[in-house]
Amino acid sequence: MQLPPAVQQELARRRLSTTGRARAQGGAGERPSRAKGAGLEFADHRPYTPGDDIRALDAQVTARLGVPVVREYVVHQQLPVLVVLDASASMATGTPAKFALAQQLAAALAYAGLSGGDSVQAVTFGAGVHSSGRMQGVNRSTELLGFLGRVRPEGGITLHDAVRHAAAAAPRGALVVLVGDFLADSDPQAVAHAHSRAQEVLAVQVLAPDELDPAPLGRGLTRLEEPEGHASVSVMLDDASLSAYRRALEDWNAALRAQLARHGGRLIQVRSDQAVQHLILREFLARGVIR
């Protein structure tokens, strides 16, 4: 799959942002890490210990203090990023269907990770759980976007099962990007599982306009189908039922947002009729998802 040229050009000079729970680790990247050592960006002084490289000695500070002191520098490493895309059958529902935008957003955020010097792995789930290799460097973007572009929405594997499989393989301190609708009962458990691994979660919720407000569906007896469980139910759409639905959706998302916030995570809600260019170039920049 291809990203719009304007989105790709903008992301080429951006990187994914974190709230602080995720941390750079391992490899040679572009993010300042907690590690100190050889580098170009000065961090601090510390007393010399046997085995230190004598080239790190600061002659002026050593002469002033009368004890050997070495310079420490910031080590730039990679942030491990895990992008998890919901490709279950429910993502094919809605008007317009949610999956096309979810797929583009997952690809854009994965591309931002690669262009920012991070180590990125993508996971899709629906008919099965499928993982790409862990990739580094923007030259791997064609391969990674191709992996995300080949998946189609089908099946009913849950986000919880996918995250339990994928997050367990990702390192502690990784940034886990979840893209889906988050309407299944087990979805909050998936968020909790990532948090239990000391991973930071960015949840991008894609909902269709008629899921946010079913009023345009009309009034009267309506048959609703559950695409993953192949069940259906008839409901009477009237002012009372529509109000109850809106309250239930608001309460559900408020609980999900609160659970994420308790652990330093974030929930970004988008509509499936929004353009990926608008979301990436305006809303995601304004909300600090990328910087």
Automatic annotation (TrEMBL):
Residue intervals of the DUF58 domain: 44-248
Residue numbers spanned by region Disordered: 1-42
Matching SUPFAM superfamilies: vWA-like
Gene3D superfamilies: von Willebrand factor, type A domain (3.40.50.410)
Signal sequence, start to end: none
Highest taxon in the source lineage: Bacteria
Protein name from the UniProt record: Uncharacterized protein (DUF58 family)
One Pfam entry name: DUF58
Stored InterPro entries: DUF58, vWFA_dom_sf
Native source organism of the sequence: Deinococcus metalli
